Amino acid sequence: MSCNVKDDFDVVVQIRKISASGELLESLNWSPMPAPGPKVPNVNVAKHLGQQGMLRASHHVSLQPRASEDEVPVYDHRRREAITPGDIVPLLIPIWPLGVVFEAGEGLVLRISGHDMSLPEAEALRLTAPGDENEGQHTVYTGGEYESYLVIPVIEG
């Protein structure tokens, strides 16, 4: 990724489940209890949109050594290295694992943002605008010389 005007930027990735028709899905966090009526509160204690990972780009230099490419990246966040505006930096963003069951035709969408995409803990904590310090245009590079990928382990069952 790169940013054209600032020496740092925040990146949040989110994996969302989609229906066979391409509609973004949400999970209710009420199981095994029956879900409430049609007005389920739009807060993260009631709903889960999808797993997220976050990284401040300047912290990509504090990646601890990994035993293999399949091992989840871990950062110690003890070091910051400013990024020259316009420079392309590789970012490995860990996402906490989660088990998801898919029906025929359902799929995944990878969303990339500069701010947290999860729902607030309570409605009173909802921000009216994203609370981030990102500025300028952020570019995601894929294909060709840029090996952008998402690692998803699959358990057949």
Automatic annotation (TrEMBL):
GO molecular function: dipeptidyl-peptidase activity
UniProt superkingdom: Eukaryota
InterPro entries xref list: Galactose-bd-like_sf (IPR008979), Xaa-Pro_dipept_C (IPR013736)
Domain Xaa-Pro dipeptidyl-peptidase C-terminal: 1-150
Protein name, per record: DNA, SC003
Protein source organism: Aspergillus oryzae (strain ATCC 42149 / RIB 40)
Lineage: Eukaryota, Fungi, Dikarya, Ascomycota, Pezizomycotina
